[in-house]
Specification:
Blueprint lengths: L6 E4 L5 E4 L5 E3 L15 H20 L11 E10 L4 E10 L5 H14 L1 H6 L5 E5 L1
Parallel strand pairs: 5-6
Antiparallel strand pairs: 1-2, 2-3, 4-5
Length: 134
């Protein structure tokens, strides 16, 4: 096993989430759009942060292969949650922007990174994902 981390949450979406190493603790709150106070963070925000960072590393690992500057890459991760026929479900959009780069090369890099990013692999066939070049 390369790495393991653990978080503990009390109070669900209106509680407190803490990393067990003490490095981060966050007040959690249901978003206003879902009837909450919005005065805290929510799991979708944290998921978007993690996925965009992880995806950025995949872009860095593959950029040279595509003749692109991975350090200039800007990754966006939009995570939405909405009701479905069972309960609630996630959707996502990953965006990649590399200023001044050829859009077709950026698109190829985006698709390639989506195949190796651990978040992309974990959500594949479970979460609808749109890939967009900006």
């Amino acid at each position: 096993m390369a790495y393991v981390t653990k978080a503990t949450t009390k109070g669900g979406r209106n509680g407190r989430a803490i990393l067990d190493d003490g490095g981060l603790g966050l007040a959690m709150a249901l978003p206003k759009e879902m009837g909450g106070s919005g005065e805290g963070h929510n799991p979708e925000q944290l998921f978007a942060l993690g996925w965009s960072s992880c995806f950025g590393q995949a872009v860095l690992a593959l950029a040279r292969k595509h003749g692109l500057d991975g350090q200039a890459a800007e990754i966006g991760c939009y995570v939405s949650i909405d009701k479905d026929e069972i309960s609630f479900a996630l959707k996502a959009e990953l965006t990649l922007r590399i200023p001044g780069a050829d859009k077709e090369k950026v698109k190829a890099l985006l698709e390639d990174a989506h195949t190796i990013c651990p978040y992309s692999r974990a959500t594949r066939n479970n979460v609808p994902v749109t890939l967009s070049v900006l």
